[in-house]
């Protein structure tokens, strides 16, 4: 009977194939050919731009940041209800709005036993205690809903030891201390933000036997060296001395207990005691006023010039305090951390506008909702823009004057601050659906860092649509200069194809775009306004993740008048409309060729000789890049020819799918087994020093000092093969679909 089973399988497969073709045919809504060829209406676009109101964005921000809204708190849930109310409004709401809840593992400080950092004498007497909360400068930094400064996911413990200064806590920093003959075993390391991720500081410290870690923000890194009371908030935008940056110290993103699975009640969960990615030793952030007292009393050799800061003293390395300082020389630092892990419910909110022609193609626009305290800049500046944009589009929708060609999905993510949790759980739950149907993801997290210029990050295909949008929008208060023209004054590069253009940054893992690009391979971008780098060296806006990030701070210092918020709303809104309404998706795949060529040249110039010594040839990679460039150029020509004609709707659909699916071809879930969620072979984290394909750069860096024929060099060859296959697959995706 085996032949019966085989025959039955063949018949079943044929039936499924036929059913798929029929469903695909009927998935395209029936109607007139002109309806199928619905294109971007520039008059409607301009009308939307004019309706985006700076004063409404300002009032949105006032409401969103009125109360602290830590993830899963009652105030966070109140904002969930606010979003649902807005998106269900009968006059300005969307087609539908729903909240979905995940049960996720979060980390909080203990209310009963607050975390504490103290200098103690050999007999155990407390000689000095760091602040346990920030100074209440505006009446908004106190109260039971303001979470005290802490390092989320840092383990509880009460280590005590001599203090050492370890600069930014990188692996190289700790190695330099050891090279100085400093014994690190059992010490407490004082580190400053920057240089490496928060959690990496504790990981690096633990490798060298350090017992506990303190982290502070140096005025040299955030305040351009200014630190006195009259030079800082509330008298300027700079961080006040008691300000402490909170943050997640978890190494990965997503819910820690359910990697690659949505955190639903039925999902398998790891044992919290065995979860990887948490800091291995107790860690606590402090303000620079307390860091000054500790650091300026250290003994030992002077720190290198590059390690010095702006606390007004010579930074020394330790270990321990100087004999003639504020503390006895044998005093130690005690770090008492009482953080606890809790399963909490956290919600995403989705608002949907159904597409008129292609409802099964989704353009996603998102931002997280939760904050560490009031979060006026991070993230509420982005949510204020999102609410205004959705109001304008919802009003047109309810009036019946507009409906997009493709569906628009607005998203408010939960628990981002703990590690991009809401967005990651969403991508895990709807993995297949999003990979098949998502056109692009627009992220507007912090919409305004400062009010000088646009700053955009994204994958190469989105460059053209951001450029097109920014050229049509006037820059705030610059007498007719466009956002594009202003942008190019601050951030620019020389393109071999276009000449001088604004610089588009690449996407790391700093916000909710990460799971979309790295895990799903969806073309993504992040849009914001930022500061003039020639006027400040601040690594981010100064009150980042502190209790001083308030509405008043934004209203007075960051964006008075909210014209930059309006500029971001217009830019992101224009990009959204162009992606959702254009007949042909405005994704320029040829722009990837420039990136690939740049990566290839860097590999040839910096790694070519070394690879040849190990009998590894770059010729297959060169050929693969050339194939991609040829296929992308040919696709551009086919699109151009169809734009001049009256194309068949199915032709349009097929070409758009090629544009949409290109990013997916660069995914290889086995390329980086040591990295969680990172599958994109072009944008995975690069630890090697050569600015080339990350897998190749990292493998060469690890193999550099190993012998011929070692496993490390085999990994270099594997990474090269992965690249070649990905690029050849990308080229094949861009060729005419009938040419298999």
SS content category: alpha/beta
Q: Walk across the major sheet and give the strand order.
A: 1-12-14-13-15-19-16
Integer-rounded radius of gyration: 27 Å
Give the termini separation.
35 Å
**Proportion of helical residues:** 25-40%
Describe this entry's structure for a reader.
- The protein is an alpha/beta fold and 740 residues long.
- Helices cover 38% and strands 15% of the residues.
- It is built from 22 helices and 19 strands.
- The strands form 5 sheets. A 7-stranded mixed β-sheet has the order 1-12-14-13-15-19-16, with helices on both faces.
- α7 links the parallel β7 (188-192) and β8.
- The model is unreliable at 1-31 (pLDDT under 50).
Map the helices and strands:
Blueprint: H1 2-27, H2 33-36, H3 42-51, H4 54-64, H5 74-87, E1 96-108, E2 116-120, E3 126-129, E4 151-152, E5 160-161, E6 163-165, H6 171-179, E7 188-192, H7 198-207, E8 212-216, H8 219-222, E9 247-248, E10 283-285, H9 288-295, E11 332-336, E12 340-353, E13 358-368, H10 376-399, E14 406-413, H11 421-429, H12 431-437, E15 438-443, E16 453-458, H13 463-471, H14 483-490, E17 492-495, E18 499-502, H15 513-519, E19 524-530, H16 551-558, H17 563-581, H18 591-613, H19 619-643, H20 649-661, H21 694-703, H22 711-734
Parallel strand pairs: 4-9, 6-7, 7-8, 8-10, 13-14, 13-15, 15-19
Antiparallel strand pairs: 1-12, 2-3, 2-11, 5-11, 12-14, 16-19, 17-18
Characterize this entry briefly.
The chain is α/β, with parallel strands linked by helices and 740 residues long. It contains 22 helices and 19 strands.
């Amino acid at each position: 009977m085996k032949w019966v089973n085989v025959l039955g399988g063949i018949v079943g497969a044929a039936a499924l194939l036929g059913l798929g073709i029929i469903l695909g045919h009927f998935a395209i809504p029936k109607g007139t050919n002109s309806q199928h060829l619905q294109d971007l209406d520039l008059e409607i676009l301009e009308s939307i731009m004019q309706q985006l109101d700076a004063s409404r964005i300002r009032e949105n921000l006032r409401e969103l940041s009125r109360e602290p809204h830590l993830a899963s708190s009652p105030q966070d849930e109140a904002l969930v209800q606010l979003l649902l109310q807005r998106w269900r409004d009968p006059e300005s709401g969307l087609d539908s709005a729903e909240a979905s809840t995940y049960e996720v593992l979060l980390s909080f400080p203990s209310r009963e036993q607050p975390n504490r950092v103290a200098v103690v004498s050999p007999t155990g007497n407390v000689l000095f205690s760091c602040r346990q909360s920030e100074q209440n400068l505006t009446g908004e930094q106190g109260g039971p809903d303001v979470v005290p400064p802490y390092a989320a996911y840092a383990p509880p413990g009460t280590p005590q030891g001599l203090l050492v200064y370890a600069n930014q806590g990188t692996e190289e920093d700790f190695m330099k201390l050891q090279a100085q003959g400093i014994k690190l075993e059992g010490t407490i390391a004082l580190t400053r933000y920057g240089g490496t991720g928060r959690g990496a500081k504790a990981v690096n410290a633990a490798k060298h036997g350090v017992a506990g870690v303190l982290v502070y923000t140096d005025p040299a890194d955030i305040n351009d060296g200014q630190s006195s009371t009259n030079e800082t908030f509330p008298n300027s935008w700079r961080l006040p001395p008691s300000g402490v940056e909170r943050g997640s110290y978890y190494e990965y993103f997503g819910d820690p207990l359910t990697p690659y699975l949505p955190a639903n009640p039925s999902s398998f969960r790891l044992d919290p005691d065995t979860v990887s990615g948490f800091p291995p030793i107790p860690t606590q952030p402090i303000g620079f006023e307390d860091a000054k007292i500790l650091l300026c009393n250290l003994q030992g050799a002077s720190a290198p010039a590059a390690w010095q800061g702006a606390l007004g003293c010579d930074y020394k390395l330790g270990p321990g305090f100087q004999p003639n300082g504020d503390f006895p020389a044998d005093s130690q630092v005690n770090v008492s951390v009482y953080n606890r892990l809790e399963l909490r419910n956290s919600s995403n909110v989705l608002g949907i506008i159904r597409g008129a022609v292609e409802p099964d193609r989704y353009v996603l626009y998102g931002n997280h909702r939760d904050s560490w305290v009031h979060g006026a800049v991070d993230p509420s500046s982005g949510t204020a823009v999102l609410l205004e944009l959705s109001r304008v589009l919802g009003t047109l929708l309810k009036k019946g004057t507009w409906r997009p060609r493709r569906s628009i999905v607005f998203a408010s993510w939960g628990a981002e601050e703990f590690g991009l949790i809401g967005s990651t759980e969403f991508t895990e739950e709807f993995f297949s659906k999003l990979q098949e149907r998502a056109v692009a993801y627009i992220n507007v997290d912090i919409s305004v860092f400062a009010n000088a210029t646009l700053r955009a990050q994204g994958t190469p295909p989105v460059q053209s649509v951001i450029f097109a949008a920014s050229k049509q929008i006037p820059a705030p208060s610059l007498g007719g200069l466009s956002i594009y023209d202003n942008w190019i004054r601050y951030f620019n590069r020389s393109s071999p194809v276009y000449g001088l253009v604004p610089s588009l940054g690449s996407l790391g893992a700093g916000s909710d775009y990460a799971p979309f690009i790295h895990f799903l391979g969806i073309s993504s971008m992040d849009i914001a306004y930022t500061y003039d780098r020639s006027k400040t060296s601040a690594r981010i806006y100064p009150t980042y993740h502190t209790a001083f990030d308030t509405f008043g701070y934004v209203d007075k210092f960051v964006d008075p008048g909210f014209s930059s918020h309006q500029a971001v709303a217009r830019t992101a809104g224009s990009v959204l409309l162009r992606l959702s309404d254009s007949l042909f998706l405005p994704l320029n795949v040829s722009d990837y060729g420039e990136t690939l060529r740049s990566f290839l040249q860097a590999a040839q110039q910096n790694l070519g000789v070394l690879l040849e010594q190990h009998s590894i040839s770059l010729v297959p990679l060169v050929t693969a890049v050339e194939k991609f460039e040829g296929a992308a150029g040919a696709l551009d020509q086919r699109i151009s020819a169809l734009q001049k004609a009256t194309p068949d709707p199915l032709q349009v659909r097929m070409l758009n799918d090629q544009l949409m699916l290109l990013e997916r071809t660069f995914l290889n879930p086995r390329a980086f087994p040591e990295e969680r969620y990172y599958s994109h072979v072009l944008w995975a984290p690069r630890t090697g020093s050569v600015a080339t394909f990350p897998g190749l750069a990292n493998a060469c860096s690890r193999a550099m000092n190993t012998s011929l024929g070692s496993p490390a060099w085999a990994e270099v060859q594997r990474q090269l093969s992965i690249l070649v296959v990905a690029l050849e697959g990308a080229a094949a995706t861009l060729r005419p679909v009938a040419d298999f």
